[in-house]
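Input record (one chain):
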Amino acid sequence: MGQILILGATSDIAQALAYKYASQGHSLTLAARNPERLAALVSDIEVRYRMKAEAVKFEALDYDSHAAFYQNLAYRPDVVIAVFGYLGSQIKAQTDFAEAQTVIATNYLGAVSILNIVANDFEKRQSGTIIGFSSVAGDRGRGSNYIYGSAKAGFTAYLSGLRNRLAKANVQVLTVKPGFVRTKMTQGMKLPPLITAKPTQVAHYVYQAHQAGRDNIYTLWVWQFIMLIIRLIPERLFKRLSL
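The corresponding structure, as predicted from the sequence alone:
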């Protein structure tokens, strides 16, 4: 089976993805800023599924290190999943540009930097899959999180263009747009249960979409209709809403 590279592997969603792909016979390279935090996950995967897994260091915001990081991987990936991100604080970002810069750099610039390198490799090899985690927050700017949302909107557009470019090279580019997901990042938030996914659900839907050759998915699927309604609200009304 294929070799999977997960970028941002310490998140709850990333770890659910690691278990899902390992259970289907894939070997894993798990990349994170603090790879030592992945030791238990690596050990569990190797014991539970008898699949090779390793943890490596990856700094999303150290753009100059990305080429060497990719070149020095022990195993060249067949699938790259970019799941790292930073929600940040909208309130802080409105007055502190350093916070806004971190949100934008993590969710857009860091992803573009490493995925450009991956895309060039896959294009030469005429095969591969890129899975990028965007967000429903990128579908329309909302007053409550427009810094984060604008970065994700840019990432969605980037993945769309990458998909168009790489289709000729037999490379799949899958855009994942999660809605509410119960993770450490959303801990303490009051999330509506019916439209809030578990990380294991997200991983299941991503794997299915990957195998089916899909281009875009929302998780949970109901978010496709929620965001359609939100996008259709006229601007003169939308700006009066507290969203």
